[in-house]
Write a structure and sequence with these properties.
84 residues
Length: 84
Amino acid sequence: MKKLGKLGVIALILPLFVILAGAAWVAIGAVSLPGPSMPATGYAALALDVVFSLVVGIGLMALLFYSSRHGYDEPYRVDDDESR
């Protein structure tokens, strides 16, 4: 693969910073919207959702590593000795 020059690095990083600035601008605008604050049950539901999502994500990654380490991801091969 060809190395990026100085102009290539700028052309790669500049749009990413523009997208980051736009996302921050939208987030700041969304936080400052008028309205009632979230009740305590809303914060509790949000915390439970975060915990549940982390448990599911960590569990799936653990299963992925387990199956990879124990050879479950290898393609099936028929042994000639067992077929006789």
